[in-house]
Amino acid sequence: MDHRFKIAHREALIGVGLAILHFVWWFGFAYGLGSRPVEEYTYILGFPDWFFYSCVIGFILVSVTVIILAKFVLKDVSFEEEGDEL
User: Fold this and answer.
1) Which of 31, 33, 47, 66 has the fewest CB atoms within 10 Å, counting from its CB?
2) pLDDT, mean over the chain
């Protein structure tokens, strides 16, 4: 098997894992903290705490994780066939 496919499969699994992690984070905070009565909400920067943690912090966390993965883990792979000359 071409080594590029192994790299593509590994990086696809990393992407799927990150998407699942983001969904679990979002779902946990949105439905975990958001299922309380409105009178019990606390607010951070004008947002209900469940929204702030699930959407604002979750977005920042996933964005930073994607940047770190793209910079240090994912590899740049050529799509050219090996041995092809332009």
Assistant:
1) 31
2) 90
